[in-house]
Every structure is written in C-alpha cells, then in structure tokens.
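name: query_chain
kind: protein
chains: 1
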Amino acid sequence: MWREPMWWTVVVTVAALMEPWAMFVHARVWHGPLMWGHRSHHARDTGQPGAAPAPNSWFEFNDLFSLGHAGVAITLIALGVRQPGSWNHALMVAVGAGMTLFGVGYFLVHDGFIHGRLPLGFLARMRWFRLLRNAHRAHHGPRGGAPYGLFLGPQELRWERQRARRSLTAIPQRIP
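structure:
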C-alpha cells in the first residue's frame, strides 16, 4: 500500500480537496448555524485593520469542531487497516491519511503560525506564509467575511477584488 503511487495520489488529492471543503464549511456552517461556537475563535480580535489576530488561550471552544473531521479520518483509517486484503482497504486508509495530512498542515499554519500557539514565527521569513497570514488577518478584521480558506486565502481575496471591480464597472442596460 505505502509503495503504490496510486495510494499517494489519493492521499495528496484528498489533502488538496480538503481546502475547498474547509472554505465551504467555514463560510456556510461555522459562520452560519455554528457561529455560537466559532465565535470563541474571533473573540479576542483587535478589530483594527491590518492588526494580527490576538492569540487566544491554548484552547478555544472552536477547537472542538476539528474533532468531527478527525473522527471521520480516524474511522476510515481504522476500518481500512482492519480489513487488509479487501479491495477498498487501501482507499479508506488513503482518504483518512489525506484528511489527516490537511489537518496537520492546517493546525501548524493556522493555529501554530498565524495565531501564535506554537513557536513558528520564523515562517514569516517566507513570502507565502506572510501572504497566508495577511489574508487571514483580513478575515479577522472589522469587515470579516472572506477569505474563509487558509491555503487559498490570498487567492480568495483576489477573487473578491475582481468581483468587486466587475460590479463597479458593469454598465446597467437601459430598459425601453
């Protein structure tokens, strides 16, 4: 299983697809019906444009939401390793591993670097990480809203600016 290129293709594909899924869940669920719990993540924002989100305590109620995806990943991996030899055991393990890979990356970049829960400030030396941090600051700013993604946050901001430009330059048609 570990040596098969197809297994690794599934792992990487699932990890990549988790970002659009996370964007959707963050925008529609966490900033929707589950805002009551997600609010703990936004509770200590300074509200000043461009200011870094203030580090919260080591634990926020919002952190419990990650247990849902972790539970799915753990279940897939556990079921996959309990059924060796079945045609789909490698697929279940690969999907669970891809979800886990995204979760670890998200935790390190979002919680560790951006919100300062881990000593990862050195990552700010790299332009890509600064872009991620600045995009996330926009989400925590007084306007809030987009970007809802993390790894696609800078791109999401570009899309928002393009949409705003298009709406400003749209010429209304005259109705006779």
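note: The chain has one domain: 5-41+51-169.
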